[in-house]
Amino acid sequence: MLMQMINILGPITLITLIGFILGRSSVGLQSRTLSSLVMLVATPALVFATLTAMHVDLATIGKMAGSALLTLLIAGALALAVLTACGASIRSFLPSLMLPNSGNMGLPLVVLAFGPEGARLGISFFFVVALFQYSVGLTISSGSLRLGDIAQQPLIYSVLLVLLVAGLDLPVPQVILKTTEMLGGMMIPSMLILLGTSLATLKVSDFGPAFAVAVGRLLIGIFAGAAVIYLLGLTGIAAGIVFLMAAMPSAIVTYVFAERFQQSPNRVAGAVVMSTLLTFVFLPALVWTSLWIAEPAGAVALDQEGRSP
């Protein structure tokens, strides 16, 4: 088990550390440019390549997408209740409490923990979170529905193409599969580097509220994930992935929205940093719980990937 945890958490920690060092150095890494490249090119390419090359059926996509949507709705309802009771700003902090960082941290974790099966199920979960971030999350922070911004997200059209290919069982030319596979291959390491550079540049403002949001995100995420597993009767790797993805820290994009629309950006930045650090502290326990939930399927996947001790 110790070697399993090292093999899962080691790459995540090391690549994030590389991003942190680059963020602190004089290299001048343009995080905004890298982030745009990931969201506009790498992410839609990875979603298309993984879900079509692995021949993921509509039932599997629907199960994981539905799990993601229900997780977000439960987390959003809990977060809204907490913020209302505390009298805190909903536009500032609801996205941070509701939206997990399932891209930068969650997706690499499930791929390392569960192998190819984790990739296809994790991506089926992740794309719903990503679409939710740039639709509902953006709407909450801006205070208005911004259909123009939503329509500009290539991920939407990538998902539609996946559904078309899967629904009609259409063959995809090898040149398209290879191209999207190569482009998508840069997504996971790039996201971890972005996570590290963000931790290097974002500052913690008002420790108390930042810590409160961090604890709230962790508890809300764990509860929402467990509730979805119970309500939908999920088992095996699917259940482990839902738990782990739901428990991820506040999404970095919530700070981007807060800064763009001037919704307490300094406090939100502090909350994102604190949430990420707190999750790193509990990451071994979260990964172990995820593997335990997924057993025996999780153990089998790890054995197939050569990660078991």
CATH class: Mainly Alpha
SSE topology string: HHHHHHHHHHHHHH
Structural class: mainly alpha
Number of helices: 14
Query: What is the rounded distance between the termini?
Result: 6 Å
* Secondary structure: helix percent: over 70%
Report the major sheet.
Answer: none
Summarize the structure.
This protein has 309 residues and is mainly alpha-helical. It is built from 14 helices and no strands. It is globular and about 55 Å long.
Features:
309 residues, mainly alpha, Na+/H+ antiporter like fold, globular
Can you describe this structure?
This protein has one domain: Na+/H+ antiporter like fold (Up-down Bundle). Helix 10 (207-232) runs antiparallel to helix 11. Helices cover 82% and strands 0% of the residues. The chain is built from 14 helices and no strands. The protein has helices at 2-24, 31-53, 58-86, 90-98, 102-142, 147-151, 154-168, 174-184, 187-201, 207-232, 236-246, 253-260, 265-294, 297-304. With 309 residues, the protein is mainly alpha-helical. The model is unreliable at 297-309 (pLDDT under 50). The radius of gyration is 18 Å and the shape is globular.
